[in-house]
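> call design_seq(struct)
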């Protein structure tokens, strides 16, 4: 089965984008003379951001999904991001005792929506 190795996106300010994706737990690097940013998750899938001089059309992408290992990790990341990013939708209460994605949606600095979640496969959390 093929592996999704990367998704290429655009960013207006790579410094702000770097800070945001580091807060999400990505391993971040800036090759190509600093005009490109790689955010790698779990050593496999990468987001590649190219520096642009105009605000990207973040509406062209529905969202990026980032699954964590536990509800506690989701809660900890929510707490950390709530002070520095725009939380778009919090679904933690809705799915704390129901089957579905326990988590939240947050906007990155360029308006891309990132879904941070842990699937709740049972009726009991």
């Amino acid at each position: 089965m093929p592996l999704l190795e990367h998704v290429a996106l655009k960013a207006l300010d790579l410094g702000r984008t770097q800070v945001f994706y580091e807060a999400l737990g990505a391993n971040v690097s800036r090759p190509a003379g600093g005009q490109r940013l790689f955010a790698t998750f779990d050593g496999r899938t990468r987001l590649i951001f190219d520096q642009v001089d105009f605000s990207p059309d973040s509406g062209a992408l529905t969202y990026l999904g980032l699954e964590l290992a536990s509800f506690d990790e989701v809660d900890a990341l929510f707490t950390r991001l709530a002070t520095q990013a725009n939380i778009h939708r919090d679904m933690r209460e809705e799915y704390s005792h129901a089957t579905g994605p326990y988590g939240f949606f947050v906007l990155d600095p360029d308006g891309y929506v990132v879904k941070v979640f842990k699937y709740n496969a049972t009726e009991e959390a």
